[in-house]
Amino acid sequence: MKKLMSLLGTLALAFAFVLPVSADGHENAMVRVLHASPDAPAVDVYVDGEVAVEGAEFKDLTDYLTLPAGDYNVEIKPAGDAETVVVAADLSIEAGKFYTAAAIGQLENIEIAAMEDDANFEDGKSKVRVAHFAPDAPAVDVAPKGGDPLFSNLEFKAVSDYGTLDAGTYDLEVRPAGATDVVKALDGVALEGGKNYTAFAIGLLEGEPAFEVLLAADGGEMAMAPETGQGGLAQTASMNWLLAAAVVGAAAAGFYVFRRQKQDA
Amino acid sequence: MPTAEFAEPQVLTSKQVDRQTFHSNSFVPARLVIPSIDVDTSIEAVGKDEAGRMDTPSDVNHVGWYQYGAKAGATGNVVLSGHLDDLNGPAIFANLDQLPIGELVTLQRKDQVATYEVVSVKQYRLDQVPLASIFAATQSKRIQLITCAGPYDENLGYRDRIVVTAHLIET
Asked: Which segments cross the bilayer (chain A) (predicted)?
């Protein structure tokens, strides 16, 4: 069972000579969770038995969480109830990639839909896809107002491929597949160049919560933390905090620390 | 000086998220003003340095705006980096760790203004900085201010980073 150190912020590794491994997105994967089940209650999300997200309500899309790449068991439980599992799934995530795990469907048929989010950005262009997570809506087309569809015949649970658009502001329509009447008008959708988006169609056409489209930017251009100091304010000069931490950590954990010894030839 | 601690991943509640994020009234920020810690300075756009770290501004009394992040007022993370110190003494973010919760942080460009309210000030070991919360997409409208903290080593640099998070309250 892997320890989710980055995710839960537990104590630093207590090994000798710990190198400061920066979480630069190349050892880790980034995962966010969407609650898209119209009649499920607020939920807690568990990853390998430990709670990662608390109190997510319908329409909540979490921040991306950092997880070391690998295989995980994801469980969704009612908020505050650790005993009941509403739905569970196994997830395999790869380093440097972004994922969305969505709880979809009415409670009686609830499942977890997992998808990879595109973080390859193009200057001046937006990549957009549509996820049909509205259980009572028919298959839909998504089109510019009065125009031909960009995405056709998407059924419930389907996630389209990304389409590439020039950056700009668009008036879009959601229509029943093959028809011209409008299920939902989306006016003034601002798509920025160098960003990718998923439009999540959620909710119910008949009843509450009402059908709507949640637009979310996908992924990100990850970086490591900036070097924002040159030591002018430092109290102690030349304190090797790395070695100090390793010694303290190793002593605390009872590990043996190997120290290089000067050999007199 | 706050002690090092590790942040929980941020969970968004319904109240914090703007559902209809279609419209964008955002701008590339030119100035950063934080009255409570006497910050009033210019912003330079920055990318990544050769080691893949968010870059810093060439002037230690300016701040850097991550050009791959969000613009001021937009949905997402607006990320700003500023120096704690230079070789001789304090720089623009020398007092960032003193910033009280609830104080205001303002981004400006000509007559456009985006005002944020500080919700957290946290210190992390360098390898524990929650990079996804800072650099990846989010439904929140917030700003992340980053500088150095903790003990300093000539070869390794500062051990920690301070991250201040503030949420948009008006544009």
From this structure: 239-258
